[in-house]
Structure formats: structure tokens, C-alpha cells
Amino acid sequence: MNLDMLTNWVNSITVGIVLLLIGVYGIMTQKNLIKIILCIDIIFLGLILFFVGSGYTEGGTIPLLGEYTLYVDPLPQTLMLTTVVVELSVTALALALVLKIYETSKTLNVKELES
Amino acid sequence: MSHTVILLVVTPLMTAFLLSMTAIPHKVAYTTLKRIRMLLSVSGFAGLCVLLGTAGPHVLSGEVLTYQLGGWSPFLGIALRLDALSFLMATIAVLVSFLTMFYSFSYMERMRGLGKYDTFYFLMMTGMMGVLLTRDFFNMYVFLEILGLSVYILISSGEKKENYKASLKYLVLGSLASGLFLLAVGILYHVTGSLNMDYAAQGIQGIVERNPSVAALVFALFVVSLGLKSGVVPLHFWLPDAHSMAPSPVSALLSGIVLKITVYCMIRVVPFFGPQFYQGVSPVIASVGAATVLGGTLLALSQKNIKRMLAYSSVSQIGIIITGIGIGTDIALKGALFHILNHALMKSGLFLCAGIMIHQSGTRDIPHLRMGTPGIAASFVVFSLGVVGIPPLNGFVSKFIICYGAVKAQYDGLAFVILIASLISCSYYFRVVQTFFSRRQGEKKEKRRKKKGEKKENDPETPLQLSNWMRIPVYILAVLCLLLGLFPSVGLKAVELAVTVGGG
Amino acid sequence: MELLLLLAVIVPAAGAVITIFGMRKWVALFCSGISLGLLCMLVPQAAEPVEITYQIQMNPLQVRVIVDAFSLLFALLVSLLFLMAIIYSRRESSSYYFLLLCNLAVLLGIAFSNELLLFYVFLEMSAVITYFLVIHKRTDESIAAGFKYLVMNMGGAVFVLLGILLKGDSLGALLFIAGCLVKAGSFPVHVWLADAHPAAPSAVSALLSGAVVKTGVYGILRFAPAFAVDVSVVIPLALASMLLGVFLALLQTDVKRILAYHTISQVGFVLLGLGLQSTAGISGGILHMVNHGIFKALLFLCMGCVIKATGERNLHHLGGLKSKMPLTAAACLIGALSISGIPPFNGFVSKTILFHGVESDTVKMLFVITCAGTVASFIKLFRHTFLLNPGVLPKKIPASMKLPLIILSGFCIVLGVFPSIVLNFTGYSFEFQLTECATEILVTVGLGSAIYWIGLKTGVITNPPHLRVSIDRIFCGMGKITDYSSSVLSNVLTQDINYYATYMVLFLVLLFFLFTL
Questions:
Q1: Which letter does DSSP use for residue B157 in this model?
Q2: What phi and psi, each to the nearest 5 degrees, are found at residue A34?
Q3: How many domains does chain B divide into?
Q4: FRET pair for C45, CA 20 to 30 Å: which of B365, B419, B431, C410?
């Protein structure tokens, strides 16, 4: 019975929130620039899971118009495609900036960079 | 459906695309390439001006122009809307960007990869226009990201170490904020079933009553994410670095417009939850605004670098605008919107002047700034008087309206805070003005430094010939500030319309 | 009539714009002369006050103008003093005449405005323009003094604005009065005067003391009824200014600082008059305002001539100038006698009116002590500058600097003998006979001489002690505290990304809890 209740809770939404929190915690504590950027990615992944999960309707199937009557909401999925692309470009830019910073400062430690 | 609205977003996008093509290495001579880029940029802006001009009379007479993307009905699709508030912000954005673009023609002369700068300049314009016109929350997120990305790249176009660091700091914190924004949008969608602002507004009322903590969470997320991008006090830390390390025209744009775009988002979002909710959260937002005002001014006081000082001053002024939004009455909103207009003009003018002065003095330290041309010094004085809030300039009018609104709404303390902040800002702005006049001292120090063989502060802005491209935008902005101060009714009427049509 | 008024205010402003292009001094002379003339033509209007409301195109500010006795009096004083200052000035550098004419236009605006916000607008503009005039000499001393002037006057203006905004409250009235007092240089907020006057060029000092400082007083006079406040709250401050100003003046050796501290003292007299709120009090106050404008400007211009001729501001390096600069000496003597309240000069009239308007005996005694101190101080000033053994030798000074001295001395005498010229404006008639006041005059002069003699004997005059307690320190201290807190704040708050993210999360949680309330 305990496992049942647990699996009820382990759905996309909660996993998403947990990932989000992990990512935020990471930005708050990590010292290495690359890890901070990874944490941004984790945050977005969590968000994506949250969104996709929030579109889930109980017992729904693939969203094909006319074929099925009860379908999962397709809108969040499309939104998340866009989000993935946006996040990709942000990460790419961030990594390029990190490269440049490393070129000039030879360090990736946030504390050292601040001084 | 009028196509003007969508064209407003598409024009800068197309210009950016064409400009990016010029960035590909060619066999074309550098000067011709430069001319092509200038031509493209100017025609892009000209297109924007024409579009705004044709839409203007309609919007200013109260009409609202809408456009459904792809013809889909608003519930399913993305709607764009040009009403008085968007139009006002769009005009401000286009005006300031246009003038700054002329400035950057000469300022960014020696920056390699100028194609990159111009391309992202227009991409930033696209982002701005998109945010201003959209009625869909997720679309707002996407355009905010476009805006953000272009700005990160523009900041780093100075190609020095501090540019990259500042850009990265802004990127990390900005992405965090965007993530929170997306979370808020997600919860909103989950709860109301639509992403369109008008439709979701109907749904949100029920939520506010039935489940106030959810509404509070969503609202808190919105405020924190938009607040970070606007530079509200506990979240402003990226601002001084980004605004001071960026090249001067980019600083002008950042302080002048980009901050205001997210404030505009706040203006759209905050009344969204209904008048009762708005009244409930008023004190909190107003106090956040007050904290920003005080924090910004106090921090600006101890800055030695002129651009950092201007950046903190921006924080303070944004605080005044947020206070106006927080108070929520019509008068206060009018004052806040007018202050958005005024501050855009004044702060971009200040940054452009600072850029020129840094060029001519070779240093960013305040005690060592030299006056440069008297015209630029006079413009700097005009802009400073405006920011401090001295009649007959425009800053005074908007500050007074906000203070008046505060007192009318029983928030006496806010008026007090704003005016004390004006007093403190007077002291640090006039510290800079002072250095113009202690010429003898400045020159003596320069000679001493040269004798010691000290290397001047390693600065991306090495002395450059002062060209008309750089001077004329500054003069135009100064004249506009004076005119708006002497005859504020022009601005006030526009703002009044914006408040009644757009605001809560 | 409207046209005359408009022209009187706009001509200086237009002149200011023209000076940007050249022919500076002549344009300035011309414009201020025209302004004065137009205002004289408006004098008959004083009998029937007129209120006009203008609507400026595209400006929502209500321009309510009033032309009555008080405004005309103030306006005439201001334009006369500006004309004198312009005749006196010899600076041709870029912004000087421009700023002077702008300032004239703005002060005339203050004189005629009947609307609180309009008054505030002009007050602020005047503060900024005067700042640029004060730092005109561009020395370190001027710049520091100008900065202090600006910050304190801005503070005063902020209080005025707060007062206007909070008008219904009693707090608003107090704030408004406090702001006007800053502008007037009254007791607790007088510190900017002492530094600004010596640092500014002499003509500007004359205008500062004569006209700009009076705007604060004028503000209280004009707008106190609108605030429904009891003006007598200023009386203790006025008394303190009177005494403190004289006391500090006795200890100074810089000629212009002496005059600056005397301004503080004399403005105290004016405020005392306003605080009394009787006809005698108000008329005395207004008359003293006009008189002080005239004789203080005279004194500043005299000292300006002396400084120009000898290059010295220190009292102890001067001396024996009577033979070389007879005209200046005579003018200075007239000024000194006026300020001390000796008949037949104008100071005597206003001080007598004020003296007889006061009821309480302690106040009368303080009044006499202050007058005695004034006498002592001017004995010191006149004696050490013009009598005694020669110090630095003077050079020749141009006639244009001497002309205003003659004109202003003339006014001192005329207003002393025919005070009704001004008193008709205020509706009071001076009916004191000379014999009635003889006792007071003799006591004052005697006491004053005694003070001076004691000062000489104890060496206070020649070697003034350095005061360790001063209000100046308080204000500088406030500035330092602000600076300090600013640097502390900026050191604390500049950290790295981790901290910023933490702040963000904390803020989010905080807001969430606040919003659920």
C-alpha cells in the first residue's frame, strides 16, 4: 500500500518541481561556473516536466484530432518544444561566455572571478 | 485584422536577418560594407517609424488594433494587441533606440564584427516589440528570452574580460528569473486553462477566491522574475555590472529601455489578478519600490566609477516607477508611466554623455573626468537636473505626480522617501558636475599621473574623435527633456490614455 | 497692466538667451533696467491688488499671479539689486550674465506667484542657478561652498515640496516653514550662508544676501495664511539667529564672512517681525527686508571694491584705506550706520518699528544686545579696514564699481528720511520722534562700543578663538553618515552569484508569505 501511494505522487509534476528545486539549490551553492550553467539546465528540465505533466488528462491517449475523444493536452508539449530550443540557445551562449572567461581569467571559480 | 501590428515585430526581425548576412566574411570592401549596414539599420528603423506613425492616430483616438497570429481565435492562438499603453512604450523604445543607433555608428567604429552588433541590436528590437505587443503569456516568455539573449550578446560585444563576466552574471540570474516566470505561466495554465491574458483573467478571479495561496504563489513568482529583470532591490545585483561594463550605447539602451520593458510586463500582470487582489498587494509592492529607491540612491553615493553610479541611479528610478505601480491609483500610474518616458530619455542621454566624457578623459573615475565639449557638459547638467527632479525639467513633473498620488492614497511616507532620495541623488550627480568646473585640479592630477608613468586604467574606450554622430543624439535628447518639462501636457495626455485603456 | 507685468518678467529671460550670443554686459544692463522701469510703472497697482490666472499652452501648472503691495515691493527690491550688481560686475566669462538674468527672471517669478507649486518651481530653479553663480570662480573653496549650498537648499526645497504635498496636515505647514527657513538662512540651517558668501564673487554675494535669501522670508509671508499655521513658531529661531549671527560675526576676520554672519542676524530680525504678526511687526519686518537688501548689498559691494583693490580679505591685513578710497569709505560708513540702526539712515526706521512692536521685555533686551553687537562688529569692520595703520596698498578701481555704491547709499539716506515711500505699501505710518528713541540709540551705541573695547582688550578681536562646537559639524556629520552607510552597504552587498541566487529565493519566499496575507 505504501508503494501505491508513493507511485501516485511520483508523477511528472512533482518530479518537475523537485528538479526545479535541485537546480535552484545548485545555483545557490555551486562554485564552478560550468556547474551553475548545468543547474540552469536542470531548472529548465524540471519546468518542462512540470508543464508536460500538467497537460496530462487521466486515461488520455495521443492527441490526434478526430481519432480519439479523450486525449492528452497537446499545448504544453508544443510549448515545451519552443522552450527546449530557447534553453538550448541560452546554454550555448552561456558556454561560449564561459569559454571566453576562461581564456582571459584562467579560472572557473565564481569566488575568484568576483574579486 | 490590421497587419501593422505583426509588421512591427517582423520588420526588425527581417532587418536583423539581412544584417546577419552582411556579417559573413565577404570580399566586399569594409567601407561599403559599413555603408550597407548603416543603410539597412536606418531603413529598419524608418520602417518601424512609419508603422508606428500609421498606427498612431488610430491608437491615440482610443482604438485598439489586434492581430491573431495565423488566424486562430484568441483562445487557441496567439493574439497581438496594440493599445495606447503598448504604443506609448513602443514609441519610447523606437525613439531611444534610433538615437542610440546613430551614436553607436561612430562609437562602435573600431569594434570588430560590427555585423554582430547590428544584428543583435535589431534582434533586441524584435524582442522588445514582441513583448510589448503580445497578449499571450508564453509568447511573452519567448520574446523576453529573445530580448535577453540579444542583450547578453550586446553586453559582451565589448570583448573585454569584464564584459564577459557581466554578461554571464546577467545571463545566469536572468535565466533563473525566466525559469520562475515560466513556472508561473505553467501554474497559471494548469489552473485557468488558457494562456491568453484576456481569457486567463476570467479564470483567475475564481482562483483568487477559492485558492488564494495559489494566486499568491503565481503572483510572487511573477513579481520576483519580472522584478529581477527590472532591477528591484534585493534582486538588482547584476545591474551595476551589466550596465557599467557594457559599451556606452548598450548601457543607454539597457538602462533606458530594457528595464522598462519588464516594468511594462509588471504593469500588465499586476492588475491582472483583479482589483481586490491589487489593493491587497499594494502596500507590499509599494514598499518594495521604496526599498529600491533608497537602496539604489544610497549605493550610488559611494561609487567612483561614473557608469556604476548611473546604473545604481537607474535602480533608484525604477524603484520610483515600481512605487507608482504599487500605489495603484490612476494618478500614481500616470506618474509611473510618465516617469518611464522621462527616465528613458534622461538615462540614455546620461549614458551617452558619459560615454563621450569617458572617451575624452580616458578614465571612468569620477574625480578624474574632464569636461569635454561644453555642449555635452551642458546636456549632462540638463539630464542630471531631470533625474534629480528639478523644474523645469520632465523628471520633476513625473516625480511630483507620483508623490502627489502617494499622498492622496495615504502613503505619506513614500513621498518622503522619494524626495529624500532626490536630495541624495542631487549630491552625487552634482559631484560629477563639480568635476567639470574644477578643471585646474583635474589637469594637475593628470599631469601627475603621466609623470609617474602610471598606465591609465585599462579601458575599452580609448580616446576617440568626437563626431557629430555621437553629439547630435545627445542634444536631441536634452532638448526633448527640456521641452517635455516645460510643456508636459503632451506626455501627460498620452499617458492618461494609456492608463485608461491599458491599466487597471 | 498685464502686459507690463509679463514684459517685466520675460525681458530678463529673453535677455539671458541673447547673452549666449554676445554683447553680454550691455544686454544685461538693458534688460534689467527695462525690468526695473516696467515694475516702477506698475507701482500704482499696489493700491488695488490684482490676481490673474494664466494658462500656459500645454502645461497643466496653474500660473496664478498676484500683483499687490508685497509682491511689487519684493520685485522692485530684487530688480534694483540686480541692476546694481550688473553695473558693478566686470566679469565677461561665458555664463555669468546669462545666469544673472535667468536668476532675475526666476526671482521675479517668485515675487509674483500666488500658487504654491509655482513658487516651489521657481524656488528650485533659483537654487540651481545660484549654485552655478556661487561656484563661478571655480576655486576649490567655491566649489566646496557651492556644494554645501546646493545640498542644503535642495533639502530646504524638498521640505517645501513635502509641505505643499501634505498641505492639509499641520506637519505640512511646519515642513513648508522649515524649508523656507533653510532658504532664508535662519538659525539651525544657516551654515551654508557662512561658506557661500565669501566664496562667491562679490556681486553674487550681494545678490545672495540681498535678494535670494529674502525669497524664503517672502515665502513665509505670502503663503503662511494658506497653511493656517501660527507663524510665531519662528520667533525662537529668529531670536537665536539674531544672537548667534552677531556673536559669530564678532569672531571672524574674513571681511565677507563677517557680512555673511550679519545677514543671518538681520534675517533673524525680519523673521521676528513676521512672527509677531501684528501690523507693526509685519511692516517692520518687510521694511527691514527691503532695507537690509539695500544696505547689505551696499556693504558687500564696498567690500568687493576693497578686495578688488587690495586683493586681501583678511581684516588684519587691511587698514588705512580712508585716504586712498574715500568714496568707498564713505559708502561703507553709511552702510555700517544703516545696519546699526542709527538715524537718519534706513536701518533706524525698521529697527525702531520692530522694537516697538515687541511686547515681551526679555525679547526687547535681546534685541538691544543684538543691536549693540552689530554696532561693535561694524566698529571693528570699519576701523580695521579704513582707519588704523595702512596695510596693503590699494590699486585703482573702475568707476563702474563705484556707481552702485553711490546709488545704494542714496537709497539708504532717502529711505531713512522718507520711510513712508515703502511704508505706504504696507499700510503703516512711522510716527516715532527722534527724541523718543534717543535712549535706545544711545544705549545701543554705548553698549556696542563697550563690547568692542572689551574685545580689543581681551584680544578676541585680533586673535579670535577657534570654536569647537558648531552646527556646521552637525550637517557635515549627516553627510558623512550617509556616505559611510553607503559604502558599508555597497561592501556588504557585492558578492557572487551564489549569494544573489540565495537572495532571490529568500525574497520569493518572503513575498509569497506577504501576499497570502
A1: G
A2: -65, -40
A3: 1
A4: C410
A66-91 pLDDT tens trace: 777 777 777 888 889 999 999 999 99
Rounded CA gap, B178 and B184, in Å?
A: 10
Mind giving me the DSSP string for A22-37?
Answer: HHHHHHHH--BHHHHH
Which chains would you list as touching C if contact means 3+ CB atom pairs under 8 Å? Answer: A, B
Give me the pLDDT at residue C204, please.
86
CA distance C55 to chain A (A): 54
Query: Domain coordinates of chain C in residue numbers?
Result: 1-114, 278-467, 471-516
Number of B–C residue contacts, CB under 8 Å:
146
In whole angstroms, give the CA distance from residue B150 to residue B116.
Answer: 10
Instruction: Kindly determine whether residue C507 and residue B224, on different chains, have CB atoms separated by under 8 Å.
Output: yes
Would the pLDDT of B462 be above 60?
no
Three-state SS at C235: helix
Contact residues on chain C for A113, CB-CB shorter than 8 A = 496
Interchain CB distance below 8 Å, C498 and A113: no
How many whole angstroms separate alpha carbon B466 and alpha carbon B356? 7
Percent of chain C with pLDDT over 90: 4
Q: What is the pLDDT of residue C367?
A: 85
**Is position B104 within any domain?**
no
- Interface size, chain A vs chain B, as Cβ–Cβ contacts under 8 Å: 73
- The alpha carbon torsion through C344, C348, C352, C354 (nearest 10 deg) reads 150
Q: B168 contacts in A (CB within 8 Å)?
A: 33, 94, 97-98, 101
Q: Are B105 and B78 in contact (CB under 8 A)?
A: no
Instruction: Domain of residue B405: give its range.
Output: 274-442+466-504
- In this structure, is residue B50 part of a structural domain? no
Tell me the average pLDDT across B160-179.
89
- Closest-CA distance of chain C to residue B390, Å: 6
How far apart CA C72 and CA C112 sit, in angstroms, is: 8
Q: Do A29 and C498 touch (CB under 8 A)?
A: yes
| Residue A97 touches partner B, C-beta closer than 8 Å | yes
Q: How far is A2 from chain B, CA to nearest CA, in Å?
A: 28
**Residue B504 confidence (pLDDT):** 46
Q: What is the residue type of C40? A: C
Name residues 37-76 of chain A within 8 A of B (Cβ). 37, 40, 43-44, 47, 50-51, 54, 75-76
For chain A, give every domain's residue range: 3-114
Confidence of residue C45 (pLDDT cuts 50, 70, 90): low
Give the range among B423-432, C98-107, C222-231 with minimum mean pLDDT: C222-231
What ipTM describes this predicted complex?
Answer: 0.90
C6: which residues sit within 8 A by CB, 6+ positions away? none
Mean pLDDT across B7-25? 85
Chain A residues closer than 8 Å to C494 by CB: 114
DSSP symbols for B351-370: HHHHHHHHHHHS--BGGG--
Beta pairing partners, B67? B80
- Inform me whether the C-beta atom of residue B301 falls under 8 Å from chain C C-beta atoms: yes
For residue B451, is pLDDT > 60? no
Q: Is CATH 1.10.287.3510 what the domain over A3-114 is classified as, yes or no? A: yes
**pLDDT for position B32:** 75
Distance (Å, rounded) from C-alpha B365 to C-alpha B372? 15
B221 touching chain C per CB within 8 A: yes
Tell me the three state secondary structure of residue C62.
strand
B419/C154 touch (CB, cutoff 8 Å), yes or no: no
